[in-house]
Task: structure prediction
Amino acid sequence: MSRRLIGIIVLLWVVTAAPYVYGHAVASTDRVYTGLLIDVPDHAQYWAWVRESRDALFIRNTMTPEVNPPIFMNLMMWLLARVQGVFGLSFAGLFQVWRVAALLSLVAALEWFLKEVMTDGASRRTAFWLALLGSGFGWMLVGTKVALHLTEAPFPADIYTGEPNTFLGLLAYPYFPLAQSCVLLTCIGAWRAYVRNDNRGIALAGAAALTGTALHAYDLLVMAAALGSLLVVAWFRDRRFPTRLFAACAAAGACGAPVALYYTRLTAGDPLWQSILGQYANAGVWTPPHVHLIVLMGLPFLLAAAALLTRTLPDTGAAFAAGWAVTGLGLVYIPTVFQIKMLAAWQFPIAVLAAHYWHRQVLTRPWAINRPELARLATLGIIVGASLTNVYLYVWRFTELRHRDTPYFLHVDEANTLDWLSVHTSDTDVVLAPESVGRFVPGVGHTRAYLAHWAMTNRYFERRDNVLRFYQAETDNDWREALVRREGVTMVLDTSFAQQSAAHALDGAPWLERVQTTPTVRVYRVRAASPNADMRRSSRGNRS
Result:
């Protein structure tokens, strides 16, 4: 690894670490920073998987109250669990280790990929920075919000979608860049098998596909689109079938398919996991349509489109990028609940095409040839212009952290209560809590939650509504008792910090025993039902 690349990685680490340092710095005696910047529900889900993966490779879903067998596996969370166990890290500390791993793998893989498929050094450098920093025209939507005094920016998915935004992934979604580095390594292996007749490329393609699919199964489709494009491009350009390239593609498919088949069987064969996959639609997040895709991808997308329209494809590497970009455009609209995941790694072929067009069509004009300093300044301007939305996203992290509020902060009593749960609960317990705290119950509290995640909690909307009603002061205690007994809830957590407190009513409930008290949080254990109580509830149910 060159000193230049090491310097870039160190600089990126310093820049992306600053918001986390700030979050810990502004935490006060009554606020605990979770160590997260964006998408707290999904990362709390990962912590639940890490917690379960400490004991076994195959784990249960602890973010739903149903009893379910340990049949789910996630290699990335299993590896994180091993790291956490060896070094005794908190989840906040583990997240930073995860980010460093993502930085190292993605930046190194991106540099290697561009060196393989791009021969011109200037174009390669531009593609590197566009792929690393490009973030679309979302800043215009933010400007619209400010200009029109809106409470929220319009079309937030055009701003916050992380799959095709490398910098946002390195900042707050280490899952994405780690998985995308495997996509790049798979492509590198196939490319080397084709261009250099290197059998080690076949092995690299297979190993990277296996690892990438085990880390993030959706990405096998992205790999298939990329490798299929390369196979077609090579076949047509050479006018003969690329045998060694086909072997690399076959190795990638053979190595990745068993893991993909496992996840397919899991979500199709197990009713609970089938329901969970169906709930991915709950997020209401789909691939942005038509013009919104331009807003999401920004300047690199427009330059790449110009490259395709003007056929600025000087070599096989550019043709490969064109094939991947076009195939990827179709892939991102497949009719599935996870279609937005198909945007992963699409920024890389887009950046290659954009750089080719910029350097071979724009910078070959007289104004650029005669004034090279102006050409360099214009290139810098393109990179900065492509990065403006990321500047907003980065600065806004500090603004949100300054409020020291949910979801990025917990009250110290809530954090201490989660630690208490980790010691005083068992695998058979189910904790009902406001969602802002309940999402951390499986990972930090080490037990099952009644309501935790918009997809992983089965019957999410029904249970979310039940929790909201449970903590309303006017709710009848008989209804509360019927709910917890019907759903198998064994413990109730009440917190006034979440502004959903029913402590007065719960303290008077004979079916609850208070087992833990702090100034803002109370924990109750549900008492075993007496036969007479069951008969009374049955009688009330019959009369109703």
Observations:
- Strands lie at 31-33, 409-411, 430-432, 448-449, 491-495, 512-517, 521-526.
